[in-house]
Specification:
160 residues, mainly alpha, two-stranded parallel ribbon, single chain, Nucleotidyltransferase, domain 5, 2 domains
């Protein structure tokens, strides 16, 4: 039986995500890797099991390896959250934390926008109606957000 002795949660803001996505030298995968590195350096485990967000597992693992500067045994792969109990636990913790943060935002702003996922119709409706009211909660690099701005800036035939 495995026992999780310690874990760490790093919260990443919409602004940080936008910065990475819109950067010339970073992206969402490297942002995740950089925060994984922070966790590994702080917790300094003997082994780490990491669910790889990148399509290139070796490049992702090498990126981590070069930056952690310790002998942590890295197990990096796809679908690790379904193949490894440690990653499964981490996935559950992350999802629970995300849901908790969504509930805090809803309480703070006084609106129920449901899940906050792009496939959620209530979230999409909230985005259309309130993107200007609460700009700090939206990822500007989110495709739903960019599409909305494009639609709002697009002229219709009567405007020509």
């Amino acid at each position: 039986m495995r026992k999780i002795v310690q874990f760490k949660i790093i919260k990443i803001t919409p602004k940080q995500i936008d910065s990475a996505v819109e950067s010339d030298n970073s992206n969402l995968n490297w942002l995740e890797a950089d925060n994984t590195i922070k966790i590994l350096k702080e917790l300094n485990p003997n082994k780490a099991y990491i669910d790889c967000p990148s399509t290139n597992i070796n490049a992702y693992k090498n990126y981590l390896r070069k930056r952690i500067e310790t002998g942590i045994e890295l197990h990096v792969g796809h679908k690790m959250d379904s193949d490894n109990i440690v990653c499964s636990a981490a996935s559950i913790i992350a999802k629970t934390e995300r849901d908790s943060e969504i509930e805090k935002i809803k309480k703070k702003i006084g609106y129920n926008f449901n899940s906050g996922y792009p496939s959620d119709p209530l979230t999409q409706e909230f985005l259309r109606k309130h993107h200007k009211d609460f700009p700090e909660i939206f990822r500007k690099s989110w495709e739903s957000y960019k599409r909305l701005l494009k639609e709002k800036n697009q002229k219709n035939l009567e405007e020509f």
